[in-house]
């Protein structure tokens, strides 16, 4: 009987070995896929940033829930953070917060003594602000286990923990009179110099919802263990640490040029996309059903039924950067902010639409961006009149006999309110070069000020001085020097800076 049992055992072992070998041989013909299959992180985006608001519950000697008047149940704060994924499971975050904090004695408080005060716990409340930072490790729970799905999921779960540090200005107040308590605040007791601060241990659970390739919504509750007894400013002999809870709601923006983000990349599911999950070694995948396989599709999230080009991008018949399914004028080139339709308003009727017309109420040619141009004859008249502008010797003071001509120049310029002009000053070569340059600039500026005082918009004018550098006649004769001492009015070309 013993020999028969031994023989049966040997036969069973042989059969199991053959079965195991057969399975191994079969498995070798198919790639092995596990939850920890490697993905090439270079093919995915890794950076992200987020922010939002949260509600704070303080659980210390004083608390802001289960209290008599319920004031403290509405303590809120703001937060923001940046994150980086090392792979599809592990990452790191740097997070900051700014909170208003509040607490009172609970309804069932025992009323024990508060150190550094002559009050008991049920006679005080605290208020303060907290500013802090956290460094958190990211553990992407959704990517630990395979889902077996060949498309990106909508929900993601992650666990976060690390270390935090914050500073706070918690102060105690009398519950009846609202008066601050002397000796109870951080300026006054031996445990709190200058400001109160502490390290704390955060434990957070994040639930994200993928709105789009770029944007997620996130709900994140957190438990924080504060390694001090002064967050609520009520120091007692009852405890050595405090708790505060936060419930956060915010948004996440995912950076990068790639199609997917590592945070949403399950290695097992990605492997299924690449090699199939069973009998087929290759699978054609088209997430958005537009007829272009994902491997070649530049936009895997086009709406259902939208016509696309061969690269998977939505058709834009008029090439105006508005795809046809969003374009109300698909065969007329228009503007994205007008839903693909061209502008139709031309207030001054000059053929230049208002959205590109620099002077929408005054007719002007397209070459001048819809603003009027000034005739050459008017420029010649301005410079003819400008020859009669005289100054006192070696000064930038205009002589009274030039006032009438300057007034005439101002009247002409006001006829062209959207045309800009240079007021250019020049001198002869008598005297020092540097002095002449400064004198020409002061004289040009004096003319510009006079014209502005006659009603010309100062934005039309720009004064310049060139000293003796641009003579129009030889300085060897008195007549030539007189002609070189002049003021000119020139048109500023719209294309000039």
Element layout with pairings:
Layout: H1 2-28, E1 47-59, E2 76-85, E3 90-103, E4 124-140, E5 155-168, E6 171-174, E7 196-210, E8 215-226, E9 242-254, H2 267-275, H3 376-386, H4 403-414, E10 421-426, H5 433-453, E11 461-465, H6 478-484, E12 486-491
Parallel strand pairs: 10-11
Antiparallel strand pairs: 1-2, 1-9, 2-3, 3-4, 4-5, 4-6, 5-7, 7-8, 8-9, 10-12
Helix pairs in contact: 3-4, 4-5
Would you kindly provide a written description of the structure presented here, covering whatever features stand out?
By secondary structure, the chain is α+β, with helices and mostly antiparallel strands. The chain has 6 helices and 12 strands. An 8-stranded antiparallel barrel has the order 1-2-3-4-5-7-8-9. It has a 3-stranded mixed β-sheet with strand order 11-10-12. Residues 13-37 and 277-281 have low confidence and may be disordered.
Please give the order of strands in the largest beta sheet: 1-2-3-4-5-7-8-9
Distance between the termini: 109 Å
Q: Helical residue percent?
A: 10-25%
Report the mean per-residue pLDDT as an integer.
80
| Largest sheet composition | 8 strands, antiparallel, barrel
Contiguous helical run count: 6
């Amino acid at each position: 009987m013993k020999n028969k049992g031994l023989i049966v055992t040997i036969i069973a072992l042989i059969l199991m070995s053959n079965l195991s070998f057969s399975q191994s041989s079969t498995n070798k013909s198919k790639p092995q896929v596990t939850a920890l299959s490697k993905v090439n992180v270079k093919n995915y985006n890794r950076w992200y940033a987020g922010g939002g608001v949260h509600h704070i519950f303080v659980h210390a000697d004083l608390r802001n829930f289960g209290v008599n008047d319920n004031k403290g149940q509405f303590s809120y704060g703001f937060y923001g953070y940046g994150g980086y994924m090392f792979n599809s499971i592990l990452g790191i975050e740097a997070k900051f917060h700014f909170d208003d904090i509040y607490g009172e004695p609970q309804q069932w408080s025992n009323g024990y003594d508060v150190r550094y005060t002559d009050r008991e716990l049920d006679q005080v409340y605290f208020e303060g602000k907290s500013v802090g930072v956290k460094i958190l490790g990211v553990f992407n729970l959704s990517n630990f286990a395979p889902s077996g799905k060949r498309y990106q999921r909508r929900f993601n779960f992650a666990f976060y923990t690390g270390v935090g540090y914050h500073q706070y200005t918690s102060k105690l107040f009398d519950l009846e009179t609202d008066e601050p308590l002397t000796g109870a605040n951080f300026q006054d007791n031996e445990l709190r110099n200058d400001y109160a601060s502490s390290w704390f241990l955060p434990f957070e659970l994040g639930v994200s919802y993928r709105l789009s390739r770029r944007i997620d919504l996130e709900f994140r509750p957190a438990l924080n263990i504060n390694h001090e007894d002064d967050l609520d400013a009520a120091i007692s002999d009852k405890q050595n640490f405090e708790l505060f809870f936060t419930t956060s709601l915010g948004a996440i923006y995912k950076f990068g040029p790639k199609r997917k983000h590592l945070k949403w990349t399950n290695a097992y599911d990605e492997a299924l996309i690449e090699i199939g999950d069973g009998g087929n070694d290759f699978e054609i995948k088209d997430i958005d059903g537009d007829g272009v396989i994902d491997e070649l599709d530049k936009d895997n999230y086009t709406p259902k039924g939208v016509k696309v080009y061969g690269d998977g991008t939505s058709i834009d018949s008029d090439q105006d950067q508005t795809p046809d399914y969003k374009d109300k004028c698909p065969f007329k080139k228009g503007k994205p902010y007008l839903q693909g339709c061209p502008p139709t308003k031309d207030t001054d009727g000059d053929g230049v639409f208002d959205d590109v017309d620099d002077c929408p109420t005054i007719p002007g040619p397209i070459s001048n961006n819809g603003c009027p141009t000034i005739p050459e004859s008017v420029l010649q008249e301005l410079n003819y009149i400008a020859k009669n502008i005289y100054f006192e010797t070696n000064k930038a003071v205009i002589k009274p006999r030039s006032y009438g001509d300057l007034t005439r120049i101002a009247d002409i310029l006001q006829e062209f309110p959207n045309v800009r002009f240079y007021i250019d000053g020049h001198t002869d070569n008598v005297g020092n070069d540097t002095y002449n340059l400064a004198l020409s600039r002061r004289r040009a500026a004096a003319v510009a000020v006079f014209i502005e005082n006659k009603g010309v918009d100062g934005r039309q004018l720009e004064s310049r001085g060139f000293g003796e550098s641009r003579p129009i006649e030889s300085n060897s004769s008195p007549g030539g020097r007189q002609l070189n001492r002049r003021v000119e009015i020139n048109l500023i070309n719209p294309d000039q800076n």
